[in-house]
Amino acid sequence: MSIPPNDTWHIVLPDKAQVFRRRAMRFEVLLTHRPDWAYLAFAEQIASAQQHSMTDHPSPRLPDERLLRLRNAHAVPPLCAHSGRQENGWHEALAVIGSRVSHATTGKTRTAIERLLDTPGAQIESFARGVLCGYYGGVDSEARVLLAAALQVHWVAMAAEAAARAAFGPTEVPSLCPVCGSPPVATVLRRHGGTLDRYLHCSLCATEWSMAVDRCTSCGSRGWLHYFRAGGAHSAVRAEACDECGSYLKILNLDHAPTLDPTADDLFTLELDAAAQDAGFARSGPNLLFVPGIEPSV
Ligand SMILES: [Zn+2]
Ligand SMILES: [Zn+2]
């Protein structure tokens, strides 16, 4: 089902100086609640390394103006991550992130990271394309997370760079990012004046784009939606599941808890994933900092 754009559709491009700084800070707070959770500490190290990497990230090379205009005219994401265009900027981010995280890890996680950093160019390009296409095989889970982290840095930098050079509008598939074409990691609710607006938050480039609060974010149905709620301090996070397409995605209410981060708080509320999946629903978008079943040694 396609969802018609409306007058209120709008987009929020990422602030590259803030995305990973806020995420790292949020992980630090979450770690105070669960200091024994090794994976949370691993994710915090990655977010911190992403922030460090972004400070020195080279200016990304965007597609030329003609191609940007052409894609916009055809409602295709201007910086489509699945276009086959080879990107080079993420290699610098991987070197920085890999170096910092490997020094903080031990055992098979460190071995997997070092093996990734020694991977020949053509093969690592193939691994990166797999990450961008949602393919989980071919590379160690820990290495896959690092690759995804580097790709996030590069695509956030590109989306920020494109803010002044490309026009953005609704695309053919409203559930995918209008900048890079990736699925969302979660949705967020923000209050503007008297209304609560919903945005989907891109799993790759951190762009946010608006969508009606009463539709499934995957298929657009206004049919049967179920909600799974987190307990205690995380009552501002819930999972929305759709009977029509069988998918679910989490909603973070930033009106109630402004410091929530879509990537960090999605990871922190895995019990909601378990509840939705036990009820037969499947995630409609990935959290690129998490591969199900991963248990790094840190
Ligand atoms: Zn995106
Ligand atoms: Zn649906």
Largest sheet: 8 strands, mixed
Ligand types? zinc ion
Low-confidence stretches: 1-5
Share in β-strands = 5-15%
Which CATH architecture of the largest domain would you pick? Alpha-Beta Complex
Short note summarizing the structure:
40% of the residues lie in helices and 14% in strands. It is α+β, with helices and mostly antiparallel strands and 298 residues long.
Report on this model:
The structure is a single chain. With 298 residues, this protein is α+β, with helices and mostly antiparallel strands. It has two domains: 11-162, FdhE-like fold (Alpha-Beta Complex); 184-283, no CATH class. It has nine helices and eight strands. It has helices at residues 19-33, 38-55, 65-73, 89-103, 107-117, 121-132, 141-162, 262-268, 270-278, and strands spanning 11-12, 184-192, 195-202, 208-211, 225-229, 237-242, 247-253, 282-283. Strands 1, 2, 3, 4, 5, 6, 7 and 8 form an eight-stranded mixed beta sheet that branches. Helix 5 (107-117) packs across helix 7. The chain is globular and about 50 Å long. The protein binds zinc ion (2 copies). One zinc ion binds next to loops.
